[in-house]
Design goal:
Blueprint: H1 16-21, H2 37-46, E1 51-55, E2 76-83, E3 91-100, H3 109-120
Antiparallel strand pairs: 1-2, 2-3
Length: about 130
């Protein structure tokens, strides 16, 4: 599929006609702090459509008392709009937050790590792991 050109974040419109002309749309916002207006604008544009915001290059801290290792490689978060899986193939009315953690030996490490991360923001894990 040919590339349709680059759109810089300040030029991202929520107008459906603009977005339709650029689908499928992939955007990268490198080295920007969380809380910039781009997340709000993207969320408004994607609200009724299947879409994803993905943050990588994060760091999960070492938590010795919980048996968790520090991790950079697998420290990611995805917000899926109107989708239940990373493949964006199962449409739902709502959003899914995926916390990516290192898969260990099948001993439940990823569930413990995801649960610990959820607790840090006052939440709980509500679904099973998705393995890719």
């Amino acid at each position: 599929m040919p590339l349709r050109g680059t759109i810089h974040a300040p030029e991202l419109s929520t107008d459906p006609a603009f977005l339709s002309a650029h689908l499928p749309l992939w955007a990268s916002v490198d080295a920007q702090p969380v809380g910039r207006s781009i997340e709000d604008r993207f969320t408004a544009a994607a609200a009724r459509h299947v879409a994803e915001i993905h943050w990588d290059l994060l760091e999960w801290p070492k938590v010795p008392e919980a048996g968790l290792y520090a991790d950079f490689k697998h420290a990611e978060v995805s917000v899926l709009f109107n989708a239940a899986t990373r493949d964006l193939d199962e449409r739902i009315d709502g959003h899914t937050v995926l916390v990516h953690v290192r898969r260990r030996n099948g001993d439940g490490y990823e569930e413990r790590h995801a649960s610990w991360l959820a607790e840090q923001v006052g939440q709980t894990v509500i679904g099973p792991p998705q393995f890719c």
